[in-house]
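Anyone else keep sequences and structure tokens together like this?

Example one:
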Amino acid sequence: MTTTVPTPTTPAPVTTPHPAPASRRHPASDGWTALVEAVRDAGQYTTSAEAERIIRIVLSALGGHVTGDERLALARALPEEAADVIASQLAATRPLTAAEFVDLVAARIEGATPATARWDVSSVLSVLPPLIGDPLTNRVLKQLPPGYALLFGRADLGAKDD
């Protein structure tokens, strides 16, 4: 007597992971990626990793200079990764002029000059207004010494008062 072992004629189904529906995706991760790409484009950085490094340096410097309700609102308006950088900073002991702020950032970036640091600062800060909105941008700028508006890509803060 011969026994025949049945063999499957159809292959087992292959399951491929599908992206999570938009409602289940972590919005902060999507927001962080968008922020990194916006800064990468604005600063013409060659890699996302370079843009991410610059974001963290600039936001860590900014986090100490924005205080109170504006700091809390800024952290809430940004992707989680950026919010953590802002919120984890100790308050600065004195306000810095825009030029001093750029110098502070330059000291944190190996090989930076004041000109390259200004580029880096502007590449990060100029992408924030569309993300956080004009009212919050204005509140943040009012809290900072004169001169920061240009770093945020604004020619004149007075033009958008609320």
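And example two:
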Amino acid sequence: MFKTVLFPIDQSRETREAADVVTNVVKKYSSRLVLLSVVEEAPKDAPSADPMVSPEVVAKLLKNAQSLFSGQGIQSEILERQGKPAFTICDVADEIGADLIIMGCRGLGLTEEGADDSVTTRVINLSPCPVLIVP
């Protein structure tokens, strides 16, 4: 049913919690697992404290995630891309033919003011495939 699962990762607690769901789905359906992390574009005039703008941090994050899944007996592929997270996630899902995107939710879209800013909300609205959100 879910031949290819895309798991976008960052350094959030929600991503770590979603990893258990990813493990269960991938094992149940013998899915191909693709781990994606997006290096966010930082504004040129503003220094950013966000570690997700560092390609080195993102590369290490992906390798650690791959090791975590390998320890569970799951082979995974890793992709590192640069761009706006929601759009990049959806583009990659389309590119790899993902049947499912699994991602954690930070709850930023729970108010009307935050709904438009949530990566999760944007992915749900733009995704070429089903999206499983892990609260």
